[in-house]
Amino acid sequence: MAVLDIRDLSVSYATPRGALKALRDVTMKVPEGKITGIVGESGCGKSTLISAIIRLMAPNAKVGSGEVRFKGEDLLSRSEAEMRALRGTEISMVFQDPMQTHNPVLTVGRQMIDIQYRDKLSKADKRKRATEMLALVGIPDPQARLNQYPFEFSGGMRQRIAIAMALMAKPSLLIADEPTTALDATLEVQIIKRLRELQDEIGCSILFISHHLGVIAELCDEVVVMYAGEVVESGTVRDVFHNPAHPYTRALLECDPGHIKVRTRNLPTIPGNIPDLVSLPTGCIFADRCDVRYDACGARPVMATASSGHQAACHLIAEKEPA
Amino acid sequence: MLSYILRRLGLSAAITVLAVALLFLIIHMIPGDPVSTILGPKASPELRAALEARMGLDRPLPVQIGLFFMNMLRGDLGLDVFSNRPVTQIVLGQVPYTLVLILVSILWSAVLGIALGCYSAVNRNSLGDRLTGVLSVSVIAVPAFVVSLYSLLIFAVKLQWFPAIGAGAPADWGDQLHHLVLPSLAIGLSWVGYIARLVRASMLEVMGEGHIRTARAFGLPERQITYGYALRLAILPTVTVIGVGMGFLLSAAVFTEIVFSRPGLGKLVIDSITTRNYPVVMGSVLVSTLIFVASTTLADIVNAILDPRIRAGK
Ligand SMILES: Nc1ncnc2c1ncn2[C@@H]1O[C@H](COP(=O)(O)OP(=O)(O)O)[C@@H](O)[C@H]1O
Ligand code: SF4
Ligand SMILES: [Mg+2]
């Protein structure tokens, strides 16, 4: 079963130019106990998607339609109090910029104890648990470091702390929004490895957002490729990376000649620009940059099955689809 | 922490020395000489020379400044020209009145201003926020002496709720407090608006920062996020402003003390300027300067207590 099951989710932002349709009919799943990656260029709606999942959206954001089913229940119809009860217990988050993640004037220990406010434990026990978590993510001398302030830690250390905090409550779902993008490559590898081990240990599901193909290939079981607010391809990492079905995914992998082995820091750039999300083109969203577009592409393609568990939103796939 | 405090105190000492030297020069440049004031225009040259020598006015300026510092460190600010009482004694006698007035004013205005600022930030763009905004801007625009005059006319003369003049009977706390209400209202009112605006702006800025999103993502109660996490940071610029604001309050106190005939430093300065009582002018301005330097120092130390990054010198 899927822990998270998103169906036809559309989100738009009110802007002076009109509604910016950041997400359109996004459908995807995060299977239980697996790591699912979302990959896509900057601005394709990855952060919007996760802010809609935990319902911490920008004030000008509006959910147009769709469902976000978590363990079978639609989060979009929950009350704010019910959502808050879920945050940090069932679903927890790691954000992109570790330098911004913690309150600068409170000790790390205080912040780690504060987030356990729901537990009826003594303060000493909460402290003990925080110490254990820090040790688990590889912070040396955790006992003493609890008394330190965020600015006394490096970026890599702070991201480890963020992961420790997110995993402390043993959530069912961990969402990480480009957690290693701000770090250098060596740290990135270390943190990814640790995350993988911890996921094994705790058994949670992870939704991991990145625009780094190598990281997705290394860490994830499943991958969802997003383009300009739509899901264009999804499937297992093996299927999608070795047998890409959508021309966009193919372009990405072709631009990255060593394929996923080479650790390109950023998503390779392919020629052309993302369409304007305020006034969207009709038809396929990728048509402008697609080198194999044809007459059918004037109509918007729907998700079609390339092989079992592997889908792409492209007319070429729909044509080949086994009837 | 200790090293930060020591460094900060060193800085304050340097600022004080500079300010005192500057003060000395400024007083010297004020037209009218103290000797003629004391002896009258028809005094004999011998008498004038004798008094100049006694007051040290015949020595070169740097020597005068040096001597002034030496005496200041001993707590000797010279003698009152008319009564021959020590200036230190006269000035220190007035300090408590002004200090109490300023502290009470800043206290009530800071508490109310911070509360309104938080309310406005949390209920951004609500009717209450807009109302607070308009009121804040209006009270900021009104000078303290205008509030002094009107509150005196309305609440003391017409309604007779509060006494109009003086600081109250020396031993009677209730009476003194009663006498404090209108003057501290006059001085504090514009600060309520100012602090409310400031707190609102810095709260909104902090509430948009990543760590607040983290706190929300962990489901922390909104109250704790607002007061425990956001205000804790948003208060820092306010503390600095309050420290510097003590200087403005000191000057606002001058008008207010005169309108309400309250004893205090402000009244002392004005009285001694009009009588060209230079040692007293110098002494009271000096003490005001010290109060100002002390309050900015204190604000910085409070900030260092609240913000570990300042302590570490980051
Ligand atoms: N608060 C907002 N108001 C208006 N537009 C926004 C807002 N947040 C994001 N966007 C726009 O929505 C699109 C998706 O942004 P985002 O979800 O941050 O993408 P990603 O995380 O993939 O980089 C972008 O075009 C971005 O400019
Ligand atoms: S639908 Fe057409 S334009 Fe879109 S990706 Fe497929 S081939 Fe290219
Ligand atoms: Mg993003």
Distance from N terminus to C terminus of chain A (CA atoms, Å) equals 26 Å
User: Which class of secondary structure composition applies to the elements of chain B?
Assistant: mainly alpha
Query: What is the helix fraction of residues of chain B, given as a range?
Result: over 70%
- Order of helical and strand elements of chain A: EEEHEEHEHHHHEHEHEEHHEEH
Strand content of chain A: 15-25%
Using only C-alpha atoms, the radius of gyration of chain A works out to: 20 Å
Question: Order of strands side by side in the largest beta sheet of chain A?
Answer: 6-7-8-3-9-10-12-11
Describe the protein:
The complex is a heterodimer of chains A (323) and B (314). In chain A, helix 4 crosses helix 6. Helices cover 31% and strands 25% of the residues of chain A. Chain A folds into two domains: 2-90 and 171-269, Rossmann fold (3-Layer(aba) Sandwich); 101-170, no CATH class. The mean pLDDT of chain A is 91. Chain A has eleven helices and twelve strands. In chain A, strand 11 and strand 12 form a beta hairpin. Chain B is mainly α and 314 residues long. Chain B folds into two domains: 2-73, no CATH class; 87-311, MetI-like (MetI-like fold). Chain B is built from 13 helices and no strands. In chain B, helix 1 packs antiparallel against helix 12 (278-306) and helix 6 (127-141) crosses helix 8. The longest helix of chain B has 38 residues, at 222-259. Chain A binds chain B through residues 54, 56, 84-89, 92-93, 95, 97, 100-106, 114-115, 117-118, 149, 151-152, 162, 165, and chain B through 209-211, 213-221, 224, 228-229, 232-233, 306-309, 312, 314. The complex binds adenosine-5'-diphosphate, iron/sulfur cluster and magnesium ion (MG).
Which descriptors would you attach to this protein?
heterodimer; A: 323 residues; Rossmann fold; 8-stranded mixed sheet; 12 strands; B: 314 residues; mainly alpha; MetI-like fold; globular; binds adenosine-5'-diphosphate; binds iron/sulfur cluster
